[in-house]
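Supplementary Methods, section 5.1.

A reviewer requested that the exact input to the structure prediction be made available. We therefore reproduce it here, unchanged from the version used in the analyses.
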Amino acid sequence: MSNTQARQPRPVESERTALKARKVSFSWEDTPLHWVPDEPFATHTMNVLHLLLPAGERWFVHVYRQVLPLIRDERLRQDVIGFIGQEATHSQAHDEVLPHLAEQGLDPTPYTAQVDWLFEKLLGDRTLPPGRARRWWLLERVALIAAIEHYTAFLGDWILNAEELDRRGADPVMLDLMRWHGAEEVEHRSVAFDLFLHVDGSYRRRARTWATAFTVLVFLWQRGARFFMENDPTLVNGRASFKDFYTSGKRGVLPPTGDLLRSVPRYLSRTYHPSQEASTEQAVAYLASSPAATAAEKNTGAA
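The structure derived from this sequence is encoded token-by-token as follows.
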């Protein structure tokens, strides 16, 4: 085997599964403001997902619809179509949490306006001439999505295994939303990377866009956590810091910092493939027991 062949990404075929969107719905009347009891920082750090994902996943869908004509592999095309369906549903589900937060005194509009600007303007379509420049910008965004999906899959795997949240009595409805979403992120964790390899695959672009995605995600997440903590009507002088994130990870109510940092060299390895991480079997098993996902399945069958 040549050195070039040995350094190619190595997919695990048994981890692939057919993708479908599940039309879930949730009721938030009984979900408290601090849905992880006595853990406002952990609660609000996870709540940042509701701020980022509606705009971010609409952006994923928009970019992928543009790249569909470039896909020459029918199996990958079907995976991308399934991915688009799941991401559109995720966006809607998280968007529906925002009125609940506003009712509890946390109006997210000032923050979500900034997120909308990031995805719709800064990362949106640009007036570029047809040809090389326009294709370059499309490929840059495809690679950015692959890098972001590395972390959404990481978070999905973590939330599926975060038993400490159960022990602390986390709100079951919000936990089901997070785990349903996390399970689907694990389910489709290879699609964005496979699409990037199919249309480009440049290692230099992968490394560069990883650095951009990681920096932007850390920046947005800490701003979101600070926004929630500072505007939480039940807290006096609410603060958010990286030390809080670290200690929450040690307690098991947020992802451990060490695990997050160790995920970086794995993505940057030339032999990395998302199918090497997490477990499709575990994700599918959760989706088979999730209250929201099973209700959606019944409703689909009844229709």
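Residues 1-6 have pLDDT under 50 and may be disordered. These observations are discussed further in the main text.
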